[in-house]
Amino acid sequence: MSDRYIDFANSSIGHRVVGALGLPSPVRLERWQAGRLRPVEGALLFGGGALAATVGAFAQKLTDAVFAYGPGEWSANPWIPGQGPKLKAVVFDASELLHTDQLKQLREFFQPLLRSLAPSAHIVILGRAPETQRDPFAASAQRALEGFARSLAKELRSGGTLQLLYVGEGAEDQLEGALRFFLSPKSAFVSGQVLRLSPCATQVPDWTRPLAGRKA
User: Fold this and answer.
1) Which residue among 22, 127, 155, 195 sits deepest, i.e. has the most Cβ atoms within 10 Å of its Cβ?
2) For residue 183, what are the CA distances in angstroms to 2, 78, 124, 141, 204?
3) Is 186 helix (H, G, I), strand (E, B) or coil?
4) Are 48 and 92 within 8 A, CB to CB?
């Protein structure tokens, strides 16, 4: 759709006309701007298992407003449903859901916060690849994350996105780079994807110039 249509559909008059005619009403997506200092401009919320603690260790590099939600001992400020700030980014570690009975934790975590999402919010669910699980119940639980992630991604409004990221063993130190992309406006047109994060010996020394010194 052209920018003119988006401008018209999001104007006060255009919004009424579009609604009356039953036309699509596209949301103006937040886009990455050159010179931006942080991937997330707003509140970042994390919770879940041990990988959430890994995220919490570098979360201050992503944004100044970091909150934790759910059971566990977190260094970040607790987020209270209905009282906390609007959420621009959410990370939930579901890698420790090893039985189908534990999948209810997904609803317990996400249901209270969905109404508190800011426009163009970005959500990432972390898991472990099902094929790496020896226990069939654990493999089933991790496989079920795909259906949940795709379904929830379709329900998000106002330009929200959601990805499922299967973190390989030894790839935990690559989480920062992945979240810098998927929690930022750089991923505005990516949603409902299932991705795998693999180990890599190379670390990025400067995130303002991640490709410095490399050749195509």
Assistant:
1) 127
2) 25, 20, 7, 25, 18
3) helix
4) yes
User: Which domains does the chain carry?
Assistant: 1-30 (no CATH), 32-197 (3.40.50.720)
**Residue 167: which of 159, 178, 157, 182 has the closest Cα?**
178
Whether residue 1 is predicted with pLDDT greater than 50 in this model: the reply is: no
Q: How far is CA 184 from CA 17, 24, 32, 131, 136, in A?
A: 32, 25, 7, 29, 35
Tell me the sheet residues that pair with 46.
68, 91
- Token digits for 125? 């669910």
pLDDT in tens, 124-141: 999 999 999 999 999 999
Question: Do residues 49 and 96 lie in contact, with contact meaning Cβ atoms separated by under 8 Å?
Answer: yes
